[in-house]
Amino acid sequence: MEFKEYQEQALSTAVYNRRWSIIYPALKLSGEAGEVSEKVGKVLRDEQGIFLDEKRLELAKELGDVLWYINALAHDIGYDLETIAKMNINKLASRKERGMIHGNGDNR
């Protein structure tokens, strides 16, 4: 599936009040990312860090929820996922070329 196809299909399931565009998906994105972290933490605690297929599937499902909210937020700010993906790759390539992959800060 291509980003454009995903974006269109995912947006067809968006039912949140447009009055809360940007805010709602941003808040929910944080919550879903937290669920990913929680599942990873539980594997570290309970499974000695061994990710069996069942746990990997659970993580994949949560990552799908993260992707849905990233998509909704991107749409609400007027971007599509392909553009965001390209922007990110270009940013990372520039950092690598300049020897700035390591370190902190948005504008390195």
Rg, rounded, reads 17 Å
**CATH arch. level architecture:** Orthogonal Bundle
User: Which structural class matches the secondary elements?
Assistant: mainly alpha
CATH class: Mainly Alpha
**Percent range of helical residues:** 55-70%
Residues in β-strands, percent: under 5%
In total, the number of strands is 0
Brief summary of the model shown:
The protein is an all-alpha fold and 108 residues long. It has four helices and no strands. It has a single domain, classed as MazG-like (Helix Hairpins, Orthogonal Bundle), CATH 1.10.287.1080.
Any key phrases for this structure?
mainly alpha, Helix Hairpins, single chain, 108 residues
Report on the architecture of this protein.
The protein is an all-alpha fold and 108 residues long. The chain has one domain (3-97): MazG-like (Helix Hairpins), CATH 1.10.287. The chain is built from four helices and no strands. The mean pLDDT is 95. Helix 2 packs antiparallel against helix 3.
Furnish the topology, listing elements before pairings.
Layout: H1 3-11, H2 23-46, H3 53-76, H4 81-97
